[in-house]
Amino acid sequence: MSYETRTAEFKAAIDAGGMVEAGDWMPDEYRQAALRFIEMHANSEIMGALPEREWIARAPSLRRKLSLTAKVQDEVGHGHMLYRVAEDLGKSRDAMIADLIAGKTKFHNVFHYPTVTWGDVAVIGFLIDGAALVTQKALLECSYAPYVRVLKRICAEESLHQRHGEDVVLELCAGSDAQRQMFQDAVNRWWEPIMQFFGPPSKPERDVLLHWRLKTRTNEQLRQRFFDTYVPKLWDLGISVPDPALAYDEAAGEWTWTQPNWDTFWQVVKGNGPMTETRLAWRRWMHEAHGWVREAMAESPARSAA
Amino acid sequence: MTDPRVDLLLALGDDELVLGHRHAHWTGVAPHLEEDLAFSSIAQDEIGHAVVWYRLAGELTGKDPDALGLGRPPEGYRNAILVERPNRDWGYTVARHYCYDIAEDVRLTTLADSLWTPLAEATGALRREERYHLLHARLWLDRLAHGPLDARGHLADGLVAALAEAPGLFEPLPGEDELVADGVLPLASADQHTRWRDVVTAELTALGLEHVLDGSAHHSDGEFVPTSSGELLDTGDGAAAAGAVASGGGLGGRLGRHSEDFAEVWEELTGTYRAYPGVRW
Amino acid sequence: MDRWEVFGKRTLDDPWTSVGAVHAPDREMALLLAKESFFRHGEGVDFAVVRLDDLHVFGRSDLLAFATDKTYRLQAGYTGMGDKRRRATAKAQAAGAVIDRPRPADKRVLNTSHRRREAADD
Question: How confident is the model at residue B147 (pLDDT cuts 50, 70, 90)?
């Protein structure tokens, strides 16, 4: 059977709801697209640990110190599971981490920004994890079975993070004027990156991920779903969103909103965000300083009977 | 005259909190992905232990755990200097983790016999978590000790530095005589130190690392390291690494006298809490 | 003869789940026998075998149980959120800050469905 025929059959099977396993035959285009997508997801979990991690040391209570540490730990755990899934598509974890710290591969735009106050922790926990949950829940319908299996566990943990994030938000909003303002300022800082997080409105027929059912929803569908859930919650708390156009259009059945600056978005994901180089340089330095630990882990020395 | 039990509980809680704080710095950047997860749990456990001690101290002082853990001036903290030091590298981190968790084991075993029942009872849950910490510390110690020369060198350097300040963990507490006389503290700090030293000496000697006990990162007559490659370490300038011993045994922390590194810890640890007095988070 | 643990999948989405064990001299025979031992009623879409000796059992349930308070790792650790939301909304209302812009019909400001959501959080 020719490659083209095989690919056509594969595509037909996927379109009919078929699932793909790591050991199955798959077209190179599918393998590459799946690898890149899952590798970027894994990278984003690992890099996403850094902005929040900065507030573990500065958490305002012992309980929050514990819950934030546990949350960042979970994000690292997600990266761990996702790299495992990506590895089966033909690239080793070492190679993926090397490419990440060399700036050769990408991670989500929102993890290139600084975390200035505890309000940023609230925004990340509530809105960015909320945005991630919206996209990841949609991915549960995707065609790559090993990814779906891991996503089930990730989504369960993300729901916990969501609750943690909402709890942090509610405490700030029920707190002093300074605390409310701290959250409002953070929402103002993060709104545009969050809009960018979903990606620009795209042409579905040109989206390779939709073609292979590695994604099942368009960027715009996901963004609209995010608005549905989170904007009313913010408004009820008296927290405004820095987009004067944002409102639900009853007749059109969707939200109207203002397009962010997409040039900034492309600059950021290409590695020119405000914190990109600082965070990558630091990770690179930690990585290089501990090559000896990786060697010690790789070796199975002639051990004394212990 | 303060209740000496409060000093004891603050020393216990502050050690746990400050070390947990330092350990937590590894979360997200540890040298091995799976280890990142494991060590983060240990950091969380230590912070959780601090909460247990602060809660007990709160019954004597009427203060909540946050006020005790995050609301005191720097000189009010009673932690040993060892736990406030930066993480340096993974070799020092493992070495300190090992020294500390052996000490915590000795301490909790001692306190399990306390005649002050709430204290004795509190040790139960902590000792259960401590078993994993000891397992973890010993496995890493063993792996690095057997590792390639580089790993063994990093571990030895870390051990020399950590051992030099470990005596601070057993610095006598203010009011210790009274605590011992009342049976609150069944074994004086000095005697606990002896127990700790016996364990550490035996275990490090078994790994061929007895030279670190004398403050030297290298064996005086060269050492055969049992790696698969059978490399032999050149110990030409070994004595130069012995520097860290002179820091006075890491004493002073129990009296609120800290190293220059504590300022950074205190600023990070307590800054947000202090900036917004009286609010909920 | 070795004992082999058998793991099956009910659907391709499922993780491996232990279904039982077979005695067999080698891997091929274990696979052959496991099929009819555990999957003859159509119990799944795939299965795997692992030699029992190759399962390294942790065996320390004492280390898996929570010893100190770990509720911050669980949904149940975040309580009283309904009350917090009520206090936060009351604060916003008192300040005249609640934002009433067009939103989907089922997300009306402070309507009954909102109250229901609060009750579910308590």
Answer: confident
Which pLDDT tens digit goes with each residue over A148-165?
Answer: 999 999 999 999 999 999
Average pLDDT over residues B151-173: 97
Q: Are residues C41 and C84 in the same domain?
A: no
Cα dihedral angle (A61, A64, A69, A72), rounded to 10 degrees? -140
A181 to chain C, any CB pair closer than 8 A? The answer is no
Residue A306 domain flag: no
Chain C residues within 8 A (CB-CB) of chain A?
A: 12-15, 72-75, 77-78, 81, 84-85, 87-89, 91-93, 95, 97-105, 107, 109-110, 114
Give the pLDDT confidence of A128-148 residue by residue, as tens digits. 999 999 999 999 999 999 999
Residue A141's pLDDT is 96
The arithmetic mean of pLDDT across residues B50-58, rounded, is 98
Bridge partner list, C20: C6
Chain A residues inside the 8 Å CB shell of C116: none
Q: What is the number of domains present in chain C?
A: 2
**B271 interfaces chain A, CB cutoff of 8 Å:** yes
Question: Tokens in use for A47?
Answer: 């890099």
Contact assignment for A173 to C88 by CB distance below 8 Å: yes
Task: Specify if C66 maps to a domain.
Answer: no
Task: Identify the residue among B16, B121, B130, B131 best suited for mutation to test binding to C, counting C beta carbons within 10 A and taking the highest.
Answer: B131
Pairwise pLDDT comparison (B83 vs A300), residue with the higher score: B83
Q: Is the dihedral of CA B104, B109, B113, B117 positive or negative?
A: positive
Question: Is residue A122 domain-resident?
Answer: yes
Each residue's pLDDT tens digit, C35-68: 999 998 889 999 999 999 999 999 988 889 899 9
Strand C2-9 and strand A254-256: pairing?
unpaired
Amino acid at B57: A
CATH fold of B4-275, please? Answer: Ferritin (1.20.1260)
Instruction: Report chain C residues whose CB lies below 8 A from the CB of A247.
Output: 101-103
Between chains, do C103 and A248 touch, taking CB under 8 Å as contact? yes
User: Can you point out the beta strands (E) in B102-168?
Assistant: none
> How far from A258 is each of A8, A264, B80, CA to CA, in Å?
40, 15, 55
The CA-based dihedral angle spanning residues C111, C112, C116, C121, taken in that order and rounded to the nearest 10 degrees: 30
Contact call for B24 and A286, based on CB within 8 A: no
The CATH number given to whatever domain includes residue C13 is 3.10.20
pLDDT, one tens digit per residue, over B60-93 is 999 999 999 999 999 999 999 999 999 999 999 9
Q: What are chain C's partners, defined as 3 or more CB pairs within 8 angstroms?
A: A, B
Domain ranges of chain B: 4-275
C-alpha to C-alpha distance for B26 and B94, rounded to whole angstroms: 12
Contacts of C70 in chain B (CB under 8 A): 44, 48
C74 touches chain B (CB under 8 A): no
pLDDT at B162: 98
Residues of A in contact with C14 (CB under 8 A): 149
SS3 content of chain B, % helix, strand, coil (to 5): 70, 0, 30
pLDDT in the model for residue A200: 94
A305: contact with B, CB 8 A cutoff: no
Mean pLDDT of A246-250: 97
C94 versus C112: the higher-pLDDT residue is: C94
Structurally, chain A folds into a number of domains equal to: 1
Backbone angles phi, psi at C19, to 5 degrees: -120, -15
